[in-house]
Design goal:
The complex is a heterodimer.
Chain A lengths: L8 H24 L23 E5 L3 H11 L12 E6 L15 H13 L4 E4 L7 H7 L2 H7 L3 E2 L10 E5 L8 E5 L1 H4 L2 E5 L1 E5 L3 E3 L1 H4 L15 H11 L4 E10 L12 E2 L3 E5 L2 H10 L9 H8 L12 E5 L1
Parallel strand pairs in A: 1-13, 2-3, 2-7, 3-4, 7-10, 8-10
Antiparallel strand pairs in A: 1-12, 5-6, 8-9, 10-11, 10-12
Chain B lengths: L2 H26 L13 H4 L2 H11 L7 H13 L2 H6 L1 H13 L19 H14 L10 H30 L4 H14 L11 H13 L7 H6 L1 H10 L4 E5 L8 H5 L5 E2 L4 E4 L7 H5 L5 E5 L6 E3 L5 H19 L20 H7 L5 H5 L5 E3 L12 E3 L12 H5 L10 H6 L4 E4 L5 H5 L5 H5 L7 E9 L6 E7 L9 H5 L8 E4 L10
Parallel strand pairs in B: 3-5
Antiparallel strand pairs in B: 1-4, 2-3, 6-7, 8-11, 9-10
Classes of the chains: A alpha/beta, B mainly alpha.
Chain lengths: 322, 517
């Protein structure tokens, strides 16, 4: 008799099969690791042709939803921008785990109003998301945005950290310090992009406004941007075509931003600033902090790159109170 | 062979699977937003071993361990059903034994002989109990629920998550419809996958521990439960009083099938005797009895009962001395001396001495940590502190409003904090390495740390230097720490854009005494 236990088919399959199956899965899985989808990558969406008014609209009032709707209507209504069946991205600031009254994140009523109008204009899908700095599960909830936006009909999705699979390496056309960067793939799929930032204090750049809000589309190590933040933001804003900016200044944070955390640092201008020119919107927003567009390096740089008008004297301004 | 009896074994298996699934469900949901109805740490709190050692070492009656009292009562009445029906680690070993154990041949020679080495677990129980009495809490290294928590929660779950995420990646690349990919993504993350890939340092150590224990299945089934498990030893001793026992009716033909089938090696005397305390009431013996005479009932039967050999006197004295000896060996530990810890503990850990006496090293806080920053300590704070949690900010910071770790800690080694208390809890203090920090070492503006600092008045402040940024020409501003405000959450260190070591780091509290919490 052979002293060794015979390998029967049965126990070979039983014991070997599990092993081989596991190995096959592991191989299959690992062969996918480290690959980057690059074939036929569509680029970032272009500007959408639209008939919106070129005015800069500022609406003042005590109801954030009402002033948002009034501002958009004053531009002609979202029907002038959104065609039936469009995919719309609404990009608020959801970065921080703070309640709305601390003015660290976009007012949820403003976001919901934009979503509602986009749905009303016939948008097939409205997407709301942000690459947050605090844990997204907390910020989406505490900001009130996930709740308000999904009630208004938006698809709210998390960005799972800087390595989320939806970040795809994309070319930054005309980039001065960045020629490419991992950006959210909704930028390639959307027809319309509406930027809904909040105006806040930010020590390094002095203020965070519409242009800086686009950082939420960027994956990768965004911290590396900071030494060249103005150039980087201008690069990003040159590539990512914002069709409409609706800046929330219902509450603003005037110190210890962009995080805040004390109501002493919150002011309530009760305003919404809207327009198709992102530089003009940001330039106007600086005046809420007793500054000028020229004081903010990235706004100045954006203007120099031809992204919009810095000088408010050259902008047709329409002010309303609701 | 009676079908009714077989059904009992089937029911037991279903119950085992149900408890294992419940355990895994709770492990998966030991995560933000922690909204499961059953407490996530329920299984840990039902271990009488942990209840006893934690109560002894912390010198506090641990009311959180109420479920353990239920287990004790159950054992008094029914015997070791916990081991046979409930213990998720026992069930895991039943599964691995199926693959590993060879024929179910008996290893003992003479029928009447006592199984050998069963007594080792009593010795371990004594060592753990005695050392706990002297404030050394190491039961968590050996408690099966702790082992299961570490094995599943911080070892196997990250592997599962990795495979799940790569599978979704593969589906995305295979150009299946985007609808299916996003459905996989959504459903996968809702029910099983982690928010982001969890990574625990030294997970391979925990894997090795688990594999080693499972591999003992090559020798005997339930080797761990028979010989080592200190919780099993505790329930064993208590179950000897239980009136619910196996007995064999007349008509036994001594066919020995039950003896061969018994995974605990608890049947002796040609099938007619049962070692009280070893039997875990799995009902395998009735299931296989061809005469249907092996059965269980509330009946005292002195003739058929047998006690498994306890510790010899020498073994008992040895275990006692071992337990006492463990105290100086483990407590001779620099980490107990104030100010010598190099790392930061989770929020509210308090005095190191008290923390070490309470912490079970179970890994719940690491599993639940919203950023994944809580990581097992290895030997960097002495053997005694092995597998206790520390915050590793480069991996994940302490989220300002988050209080999850205190909510899952079974011994309140990490206290339950409300949001306000959490904001006032100081973990450590940030400091700059001016040789690395970008504005200091490279004269470039940066300020990521200042930007994300969560305290309402920033703990990191930028000051004008009168210098210019060397590239942009903007005024150069450099960061400083306000040590009176800093709580040491580590967000600055986590987000520092430098590769490898951060230019800003969090170390133990470094400030005036009144700030030490």
């Amino acid at each position: 008799m052979c002293p060794m236990k015979r390998i029967t088919r049965r126990n070979f399959l039983q014991k070997g099969g599990g092993l081989a199956g596991g190995a096959a899965i592991a191989l299959g899985v690992c062969s996918q690791c480290g690959k980057r989808a690059s074939d036929g990558e569509p680029g970032i969406k272009p500007h959408k042709e639209n008939d919106l008014s070129r005015d800069l609209v500022v609406v003042h009032g005590s109801d954030p939803a009402a002033i948002t709707k009034a501002a958009i209507n004053a531009l002609g209504g979202l029907e002038k921008l959104v065609s039936p069946g469009d995919v719309v991205v609404v990009k608020p600031n959801i970065s921080w785990d703070k309640l709305p009254e601390y003015a660290a994140t976009t007012n949820p009523a403003v976001v919901a109003a934009v979503v509602e109008l986009a749905k009303g204009a016939g948008a097939a899908e409205v997407h709301v998301f942000d690459h947050t700095l605090n844990d997204a599960r907390r910020t989406y909830k505490s900001s009130g945005i996930a709740d308000a936006a999904s009630k208004a009909g938006a698809k709210v999705s998390y960005v799972r950290g800087q390595n989320d699979r939806r970040f795809k390496d994309m070319a930054i056309p005309g980039g001065v310090v960045m020629t490419n960067w991992p950006l959210h793939d909704m930028l390639t799929k959307a027809d319309v992009l509406i930027n809904v930032p909040i105006a806040k204090h930010h020590d390094l750049t002095r203020l965070t406004l519409g242009m800086k809000n686009l950082m939420g589309f960027a994956g990768g190590e965004r911290g590396k941007w900071h030494p060249d933040i103005a150039q980087r933001l201008a690069d990003l804003n040159g590539a990512v075509k914002v069709d409409l900016t609706v800046l929330d200044a219902f509450r603003i944070l005037v110190d210890h931003g962009p995080t805040g955390g004390s109501l002493d640092d919150v002011r309530e201008p009760h305003k919404v600033v809207a327009g198709v020119d992102p530089i003009a919107v940001d330039s106007y927003a600086t005046t809420l902090f007793d500054m000028k567009g020229e004081d903010i390096a990235y706004v100045r740089e954006g203007h120099a790159r031809g992204l919009g008008e810095l000088d408010l004297a050259k902008v047709s301004l329409k002010e309303l109170t609701v | 062979m009676s079908k009714g009896k077989r059904r009992l074994r089937t029911i037991r298996r279903l119950v085992q699977v149900a408890f294992l699934l419940l355990f895994l469900y709770l492990i998966i949901h030991t995560a933000e937003p922690l909204d499961v109805r059953i407490p996530a740490n329920f299984f840990l709190r039902s271990s009488p071993l942990l209840a006893m050692t934690a109560t002894l070492s912390a010198r506090t009656l641990m009311t959180l361990f109420a479920p353990a009292v239920v287990v004790l009562a159950m054992t008094l009445v029914l015997g070791r059903v916990f081991c046979g029906w409930v213990c998720p680690f026992g069930t895991t070993l039943d599964v691995s034994d199926r693959f590993l154990s060879k024929s179910r041949r008996r290893r003992r020679q003479a029928d009447e002989a006592q199984p050998r080495y069963h007594a080792a677990k009593y010795a371990l129980l004594i060592v753990l109990g005695i050392s706990a009495l002297f404030g050394v809490q190491i039961a968590g290294w050996f408690d099966p629920i702790c082992i299961a928590t570490r094995t599943y929660g911080i070892t196997l779950y990250p592997y599962l998550n990795f495979v799940g995420e790569r599978a979704i990646d593969a589906a995305a690349r295979a150009n299946v419809s985007p609808g299916i990919v996003s459905w996989l993504d959504e459903v996968g993350h809702r029910y099983v996958l982690a928010f982001e890939q969890p990574v625990y340092r030294a997970h391979t150590v925990f894997l090795a521990v688990f594999v080693a224990i499972a591999l003992f299945g090559l020798l005997e089934r339930r080797f761990w439960c028979r010989h080592i498990c200190p919780l099993g030893a505790m329930l064993d001793i208590i179950s000897r009083i239980s009136p619910f026992r196996r007995y064999v009716r007349e008509g036994c033909t001594n066919c020995l099938r039950c003896e061969r089938e018994c995974k605990m090696d608890a049947i002796i005397g040609s099938g007619e005797k049962t070692l009280r305390g070893e039997c875990i009431e799995c009902f395998a013996c009735d299931a296989v009895c061809p005469e249907a005479v092996s059965t269980f009932a509330f009946r005292r039967n002195k003739v058929q009962g047998a006690k498994s050999a306890g510790l010899t006197r020498r073994g008992f004295v040895g275990a006692l001395s071992g337990g006492i000896a463990a105290v100086p060996v483990l407590r001779t530990n620099f980490a107990r001396a104030e100010g010598l810890l190099r790392f930061v503990r989770p929020p509210g850990a308090g005095e190191e001495e008290e923390f070490l006496a309470r912490c079970l090293r179970c890994g719940e806080c690491m599993k639940v940590c919203i950023t994944g920053g809580l990581q097992p300590v290895l030997l960097e704070a002495g053997l005694e502190a092995m597998w206790t949690p520390k915050l590793v900010p480069r991996i994940g910071y302490c989220e300002y409003n988050c209080t999850l770790c205190g909510r899952v800690c079974p011994t309140e080694a990490l206290p339950r904090l409300n949001e306000k208390e959490k904001h006032e809890t100081v973990l450590g203090t940030a400091f700059f390495d001016r040789n690395r920090c970008i504005p200091w070492a490279e004269n470039r503006n940066c300020a990521v740390c200042e930007e994300c600092c969560p305290t309402p008045t920033k703990s990191i402040v930028l000051r004008d230097t009168g210098l210019k940024d060397e590239v942009t020409g903007e005024p150069l501003r450099r960061p400083f720490v306000d040590t009176e405000v800093c709580i040491g959450c580590g967000l600055c260190e986590h987000k520092c854009p430098l590769p490898g070591r951060g230019g800003v780091m969090v170390g133990p509290v470094r400030s005036s005494e009144e700030r030490v919490t």
